[in-house]
């Protein structure tokens, strides 16, 4: 069931799209301003965005630019603007598709399916996902609930290790030897300090609680 965020200040258009997509089996989250849309996006779990350009609070263009700093989630623009220059500008900002109002709901659904297929066809192993975390393994970057998290190389490797086996409890020795690639011969607090730093960096995204301490053993990821 794809989860679609609809950001449209026209209540009738927003509701009509949401009702139609729910009948198609989608889960829809509705926002009526750019500011509200950004808040719902940051909460995480969105598979595709539908948005107008002329939004109160935060414009569609500003929101797309902000999203593209940390995510490649499909973004479709729904707008009354018909000029080619407007379409080129939005695609340049990072929109994946552009549908001019008024539009047919059947065409909207067909274009959504195309974007969802493209998103699901990403090369396997490129990203590692756990709940609201997305780890880009090639670039060694982490986004949490849509927000970029600036981790050191060792911190990223710790998160990658935990996210790769979310049900497993790792001892401090296992974490150290997997991440540093050398025998465990350091102070016991080394891993604890690194995990504490990771949690502090995750706190603004609200996902710091994902890393759970297993007292007397080590660390694991909290179950959803």
Give a quick summary of the entry:
With 224 residues, this protein is an alpha/beta fold. It has helices spanning 11-23, 34-42, 60-67, 84-93, 105-120, 153-164, 172-180, 189-202, and strands at 3-7, 27-31, 48-51, 75-79, 97-100, 127-130, 133-136, 141-144, 147-149, 170-171, 211-214, 218-221. The longest helix has 16 residues, at 105-120.
Provide an overview of this structure.
- With 224 residues, the protein is α/β, with parallel strands linked by helices.
- The protein folds into two domains: 3-120, Response regulator (Rossmann fold, 3-Layer(aba) Sandwich); 127-221, Winged helix-like DNA-binding domain superfamily/Winged helix DNA-binding domain (Arc Repressor Mutant, subunit A, Orthogonal Bundle), CATH 1.10.10.
- The chain has eight helices and twelve strands.
- The strands form three sheets. Strands 2-1-3-4-5 form a five-stranded parallel sheet, sandwiched between helices.
- The two termini are 18 Å apart.
- The relative contact order is 0.10.
Strand arrangement, major sheet: 2-1-3-4-5
Radius of gyration: 20 Å
Number of β-strand runs: 12
Number of domains: 2
CATH class membership of the largest domain: Alpha Beta
Largest sheet: 5 strands, parallel
Mean pLDDT across the residues is: 86
CATH superfamily of the largest domain: Response regulator
Shape category: elongated
- The helix fraction, in percent, is 40-55%
N-to-C series of helices and strands: EHEHEHEHEHEEEEHEHHEE
Strand content: 15-25%
- For this structure, the CATH topology of the largest domain is Rossmann fold
